[in-house]
Design a protein that fits this description.
107 residues, mainly alpha, two-stranded antiparallel ribbon, globular
């Protein structure tokens, strides 16, 4: 899964201790991205959201991260979306998300 410049800045979170982007597992990245884009779908009223990403995040949560930690990672992605959208004073953030993640989300 390739990280976009938009999401790269969001990819550091804290569970008990901070982990930088290089230390994140593919599963952590997938679940975090799922949280970010599921919030985008809701807030930006997108009609398509990748089943492939949803399935990958669900499998990662179940088999790799565990339910509790998986929820935390997903919540972080959601919170990151909310914070980034709040910072966007010109109202272009939803459009930026569409451009950065065309494989996963569509209007």
């Amino acid at each position: 899964m390739q990280q976009s410049p938009l999401f790269l800045a969001t990819s550091i979170y804290a569970a008990q201790e901070s982990r930088n982007l290089l230390e994140q597992t593919q599963c952590e990245k997938a679940v975090e991205l799922h949280g970010f884009l599921s919030r985008a779908q809701l807030d930006c009223n997108y009609h398509y959201y990748s089943e492939e990403l949803k399935d990958a995040a669900a499998k990662c949560t179940k088999h790799d991260l565990g339910e509790k930690y998986g929820r935390e990672v997903m919540k972080f992605g959601m919170k990151e979306f909310e914070e980034r959208k709040k910072e966007d004073t010109q109202g272009h953030f939803c459009h930026k998300v569409l451009k950065e993640f065309p494989k996963y989300i569509k209007q």
